Amino acid sequence: MNCLAEADRLGMTSIAFPALGTGFLGYPPKLVAAAMFHAVENFDKGRTKASLKIINCVVFADDTFKEILTEAKVRATSKGLEELSLVTRASCSSNMGKIHISVIVDTITSQTADVIVCTCSSNLKLCSRPGLPKNLVEVSGSVIQSELDRRYPNGMKVGDLVVTNGYNLKCRKVYFGCLSPFFGEKKEDQLPEQVLYSFVYKCLASASKHGCKSLTFPALGTGYLKFPPDLAASKVIQAIKDFHNKEQQTSLREVKIVIFGGTNDWAKIEKAYIKSCTPQSGNPNEGHKQPLKTVPPKGTRAFFKYKYLEEPKPPSYWTHFKNSKTIKEWNTTAKGNTAVRKQPGLNITKAISSAFTKTLRTQCTIVSIERIENISLYENYVHECQRMFRKASINGACIPLASTKGSRGEAACMKHIDDDIKKYLHPEINEVYLFHGTKRNLVDIIGQQGFDDRLAKMNFGRLRLGNGVYSAEESYVSKGYTDGNDQCKMFLMRVCLGDVYTTPQNIEKLTRPPCKSGCIGVCTDHPDLFDSVVGEWPGMCREFTVYDRAKCYPEYIITYTIP
């Protein structure tokens, strides 16, 4: 019960249990199964808005599996429930010139085609995660993995296409590709949905080049990669349409999309493909291009979608790059230096002074507080915030830092920052102000180019949370990284923490945040990652780390002296 409640509190959608107690402890499998089902039933009572939807029981021993399966069927039957069965049916079809497109619900391994398409991890280890890649190995035999290991020992990059023979599958060739998860970062300046579109087009072009007549896709992106079905379907169908319009002499005659009918969401995916394949449904991308006319209530998924789709402007309190223009308009019309320093207004100056002096733990004299208005750098930061809003539009708001498991509470400096500054932040994505101390000779380069985690690795031999951009909730901590004499320099920077991972231990090998599946350190097997890491070391000051410098913006530079 405690595990279920904690997973639900953290906003998780699925959880997996082993057959608890059936090993060394020797509990009877039937008793364990009964206890687990009873706990799930009690957890489910009265929870109308639980995020936890899927609970898996993973069983190692065959005899234990049979007993637990029997108990599950007995309990399901007693409640009038039926075992989830595999759905197979034809959904829709249409013609694009000589190409016939069909959408069916079935298993892709049962299909006959010249080419079958499959996505997998970049290391090309097909059995490293459940799903279609592993199923292909089970049907084709291990020889398909051997060919991948032999021909592509270094794996592949996101968006690449690699080819193997079909072996025991009902196809001549198998096309493998690595796609970005929906919540992932840009790859080669492409959003995940653009990578998906390009990969589909690449598959079609390759099949046509080699004289293939039939090509079969799975419902790309809708499972492990967590694409919204309507977006994934629209990109796949649009790629097929664009290929047909450009390649009139193609050899392809049949393109099939196979939706796996053994999941709970196949009907939602089917509906999305039917909509995308129906001409009168209009352009499936229109909803992603048209700005919303009114601002929805804050904290709602509609608001998060609005923030993701809007054309951002500079902050209203900036005085050089004013918010009368969009950021893109400024970046295409601004002449000369795109980074300038300006004097903040009196209220903002007081708010920053308060947060700085109240967390410094010593006497000081503030010489100046300047705002850095760097329109190019700020554009990168805003795009990263929009990526967080994109994720929130699907999953909901991030768990606040103060409510994150293992957290001591909100960032200390935020307690001293006045609403005159706070009102411009977005707590739904854990956007905060944090301090970053630096040397005088680095201030200009940071103001021009932003933070560079590679410099941290050069200047500090041991980094507790790996190679990232570090910041602190107290100016006292950041003071230790300044010159320490004469006039010292410290940034107050905006940071988009997103989904926060807290740890009481050092994880020195990190180059990006851990995954949400529980792997310690750098994970390449799971697409859903945290966005930042907070070191919650007992008896020590916290440190905040992001691994993409676009997640932080050096907005204010504080110059001060210490007697």
UniProtKB/TrEMBL annotation:
<protein>
    <recommendedName>
        <fullName>Poly [ADP-ribose] polymerase</fullName>
        <ecNumber>2.4.2.-</ecNumber>
    </recommendedName>
</protein>
<dbReference type="InterPro" id="IPR043472">
    <property type="entry name" value="Macro_dom-like"/>
</dbReference>
<dbReference type="GO" id="GO:0005634">
    <property type="term" value="C:nucleus"/>
</dbReference>
<dbReference type="GO" id="GO:0010629">
    <property type="term" value="P:negative regulation of gene expression"/>
</dbReference>
<keyword id="KW-0328">Glycosyltransferase</keyword>
<dbReference type="InterPro" id="IPR012317">
    <property type="entry name" value="Poly(ADP-ribose)pol_cat_dom"/>
</dbReference>
<dbReference type="InterPro" id="IPR052056">
    <property type="entry name" value="Mono-ARTD/PARP"/>
</dbReference>
<dbReference type="GO" id="GO:0003714">
    <property type="term" value="F:transcription corepressor activity"/>
</dbReference>
<feature type="domain" description="Macro">
    <location>
        <begin position="1"/>
        <end position="76"/>
    </location>
</feature>
<keyword id="KW-0808">Transferase</keyword>
<keyword id="KW-0539">Nucleus</keyword>
<dbReference type="Pfam" id="PF00644">
    <property type="entry name" value="PARP"/>
</dbReference>
<dbReference type="GO" id="GO:0003950">
    <property type="term" value="F:NAD+ poly-ADP-ribosyltransferase activity"/>
</dbReference>
<dbReference type="InterPro" id="IPR002589">
    <property type="entry name" value="Macro_dom"/>
</dbReference>
<dbReference type="GO" id="GO:0005737">
    <property type="term" value="C:cytoplasm"/>
</dbReference>
<dbReference type="Pfam" id="PF01661">
    <property type="entry name" value="Macro"/>
</dbReference>
<keyword id="KW-0520">NAD</keyword>
<feature type="domain" description="PARP catalytic">
    <location>
        <begin position="326"/>
        <end position="563"/>
    </location>
</feature>
<feature type="domain" description="Macro">
    <location>
        <begin position="88"/>
        <end position="278"/>
    </location>
</feature>
